[in-house]
TrEMBL record:
Function (record text): Part of the ABC transporter FtsEX involved in cellular division. Important for assembly or stability of the septal ring.
Record's protein name: Cell division ATP-binding protein FtsE
Family annotation (Pfam families): ABC_tran
UniProtKB keywords: ATP-binding, Nucleotide-binding, Transport
Species whose genome carries this gene: Flavobacterium rivuli WB 3.3-2 = DSM 21788
Molecular-function GO terms, alphabetical: ATP binding; ATP hydrolysis activity; transmembrane transporter activity
Length: 227
């Protein structure tokens, strides 16, 4: 039996000095697709930020992609992030660079050196998300849905063990949201673990999966029909 990709034990998540989630116990195995739902301010994003090293784990124990979150040092964070891919609600593409240059920037920042290897990798991930033809376009020249596809491609660059998707459909219309979800589901079916924070219940009904809810400072599993 392989180790869980994420294990949290008696964890309390803090936003500044406020405990937003308490007594979290959670295991996520390789290849799972997990939704984390809840209202704005319920702690979803704070939990995600703790996983990718933006917030310190101050109480409890946690291991994520073989990193001890409670002992995580500032210098460890770039190495942790090489093992995960992050997709944000607002895409976070650099506006003054082409799609190709956006992805090249990430590869260089994570230690890639060989130009040809980088170009091959960029073409590969853009092809996976159906955006190869947009490589030389600027972010403002493509739609929101296309920008999010590029953001997913960016998350795949370092062949991560896990993709953290924080409200990835939050800025998209319903049809485009479905297309991005289909893409994430396909990536999951190819073996990637995906943890997705969302408040889009309609999407969860359309693409059912294991669902945890943040509510009143706790995190608990919900049965699909009660979402």
């Amino acid at each position: 039996m392989s180790q869980p990709v994420l294990s949290l034990n008696n964890v309390t998540i803090f936003q500044e000095n406020n405990a937003v989630l308490t007594n979290i116990n959670l295991e996520v195995n390789h290849g799972e697709f997990l939704y984390i739902i809840g209202k704005t301010g319920s702690g979803k994003s704070s939990l995600m930020k703790t996983l990718y090293g933006d917030l310190k784990l101050r109480e409890g124990t946690g291991e994520f992609v073989e990193y001890d979150l409670a002992k995580l040092k500032e210098r460890d964070i770039p190495y942790l992030r090489r093992k995960i891919g992050i997709v944000f609600q607002d895409f976070k593409l650099l506006p003054d660079r082409t799609v190709h240059e956006n992805l090249l920037f990430v590869l260089k920042a994570t230690g890639w050196k060989e130009k040809q290897e980088m170009n091959v990798k960029i073409n590969e991930v853009l092809d996976k998300v159906g955006m190869k033809s947009a490589a030389n376009k600027m972010p403002h020249q493509i739609s929101g849905g296309e920008q999010q596809r590029v953001a997913v491609a960016r998350a795949l660059l370092n062949d991560p063990e896990v993709i953290l998707a924080d409200e990835p459909t939050g800025n998209l219309d319903p049809q485009t949201s479905v297309e991005v979800m289909q893409l994430l589901r396909e990536i999951n079916q190819n073996g990637k673990t995906i943890i997705m924070a969302t408040h889009d219940y309609a999407l969860i009904m359309k693409f059912p999966g294991k669902t945890l809810k943040c509510d009143n400072g706790t995190l608990f599993e919900v049965v699909q029909r009660t979402v």
